[in-house]
């Protein structure tokens, strides 16, 4: 990250044109897996996005276990993706943000002409009310929620889903989400990929250098 002549922060970000729509998939990616790639491809199509950015988190504020080093996770994401409209960013490390509300505020001021949608699996919607300033997140960007095995009911019954039930866009209108004013959210019933980073770590297939 550098400063421009006028003192603005200049971040290294994937190339994007004014007016385009970016879906942000925040995650630990410890490690990245086919489920991340699958929901990103589905999100591009179902929410009519121009790009998806994988926002690799320096560390989820709700997880006590530290992830593998950032450089290792970024390299694994880049090796896995192989899609021209899905990109990886270490934006949170550059900006020094950890909480999503802060990340979104910083990103929106860095890219005022870009439309952002926050993407998440259904498990994250179920926990959203525990995130810092979560009402601010919902007020800032539309939320695109993708089905995840075993999480459909908990997501639908979640506090966030109940409080914002009037702002839900039906799945059949998912292509309207990005151009809807926040608060707006949409749950899409995509084919599900039964895979998680936890399972891969448990199998010992990821030589993360993380501390437990
Ligand atoms: N198989 C999947 N189906 C749907 N959503 C998923 C899937 N895997 C990950 N996601 C979503 O991707 C985002 C980033 O997930 P994350 O990097 O934490 O992977 P994870 O597999 O959930 O990891 P862990 O098992 O360590 O919690 C989250 O919004 C999560 O809900
Ligand atoms: O802002 C918060 O309080 C917050 C709490 C939990 C998770 N998040 C974000 O949610 C995304 C998914 O996290 P994870 O670890 O489940 O992959 C990632 O971008 C985290 O930074 C954010």
From TrEMBL:
Parts forming coiled coils: none
Family the entry assigns: Belongs to the NadD family.
UniProt superkingdom: Bacteria
Keyword Transferase: yes
Cited NCBIfam families: cyt_tran_rel, nicotinate (nicotinamide) nucleotide adenylyltransferase, PRK00071.2-2, PRK00071.2-4
Organism: Roseovarius rhodophyticola
Xref: Pfam families: CTP_transf_like
Stated name of the protein: Probable nicotinate-nucleotide adenylyltransferase
Functional pathway: Cofactor biosynthesis; NAD(+) biosynthesis; deamido-NAD(+) from nicotinate D-ribonucleotide: step 1/1
Claim: Nucleotidyltransferase is one of the keywords in the record: yes
Key words, A-Z: ATP-binding, NAD, Nucleotide-binding, Nucleotidyltransferase, Pyridine nucleotide biosynthesis, Transferase
Catalysis performed (reactions): nicotinate beta-D-ribonucleotide + ATP + H(+) = deamido-NAD(+) + diphosphate
Top-level EC class as recorded in UniProt: transferase
Domain called Cytidyltransferase-like: residue spans: 24-203
Function: Catalyzes the reversible adenylation of nicotinate mononucleotide (NaMN) to nicotinic acid adenine dinucleotide (NaAD).
A GO MF label: nicotinate-nucleotide adenylyltransferase activity
EC numbers for this chain: 2.7.7.18
InterPro entries (UniProt xref): Cyt_trans-like, NadD/NMNAT, Rossmann-like_a/b/a_fold
């Amino acid at each position: 990250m550098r400063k421009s002549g006028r003192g603005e922060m200049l971040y290294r970000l994937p190339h994007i044109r004014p007016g385009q729509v970016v879906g942000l998939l925040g995650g630990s990616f410890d490690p990245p897996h086919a489920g991340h790639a699958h929901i990103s491809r589905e999100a591009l199509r179902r929410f009519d996005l121009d790009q998806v950015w994988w926002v690799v988190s320096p560390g989820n504020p709700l997880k006590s276990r530290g992830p593998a080093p950032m450089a290792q996770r970024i390299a694994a994401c880049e090796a896995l993706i192989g899609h021209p409209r899905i990109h990886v960013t270490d934006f949170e490390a550059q900006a020094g943000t950890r909480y999503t509300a802060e990340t979104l505020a910083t990103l929106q001021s860095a890219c005022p002409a870009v439309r952002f949608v926050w993407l998440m699996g259904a498990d994250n919607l179920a926990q959203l009310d525990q995130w810092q300033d979560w009402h601010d997140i919902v007020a800032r960007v539309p939320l695109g929620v993708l089905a995840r095995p075993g999480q459909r009911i908990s997501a639908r019954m979640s506090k966030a889903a109940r409080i914002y039930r009037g702002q839900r866009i039906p799945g059949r209108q998912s292509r309207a989400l990005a151009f809807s004013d926040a608060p707006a959210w949409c749950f899409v019933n995509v084919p599900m990929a039964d895979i998680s980073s936890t399972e891969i770590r448990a199998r010992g297939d990821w030589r993360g250098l993380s501390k437990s």
